[in-house]
What we know:
The chain is mainly α. The protein has a single domain (36-172), classed as Orthogonal Bundle (Lysozyme).
Amino acid sequence: MVRARAIPKRIAIALTAAAAVLYAGLVVVRVLYPIGYVDLVRASADAEGLDAATLCSLIRAESRFHPDAVSPRGAIGLMQIMPETGAWIAERMGVPGFDARRLLDPETSIRFGAWYLRFLLDRFGKLDVALMAYHAGPTRVQGWLASGEVPFSGTRAYVERVLHAIPIYRTALRWPIIVRITPSIPL
């Protein structure tokens, strides 16, 4: 019979310390890049032919996954949709009896936001331009494109923030254990 040898104490301590540092790093990432409603995000992304990580990144930029978020300008919910835009989306999607309060419902917000992002992608053809339109409005972006004007610095920063977070969300969605073993700490 072969006996297993015990790991030397200093190696065990080093492995424990490395695991603690790795876990602390994962917790920091979860604070900086919150995630939630994964099943709803995946379903809406699939329905619209979108990348789920892109939707997660968009939700992070819009509301940090707070379903009851309301902006100073009146945008509502996870995807921060303006009530007028929500009514227009509902009409285009054939959703009867739209009420802006429905945008506070995560399922409705994600579904409408995914549909709208797909609409903007189809209209503008490029993700960065579609994100500019999501943030600043399609009419304004159309004007920027026609005149060669540079978008607002806030819009440029918004697009960079969304694009930067996509690979991080791809990793989180590819390795769901990361989400399960680390706490969600809302800011």
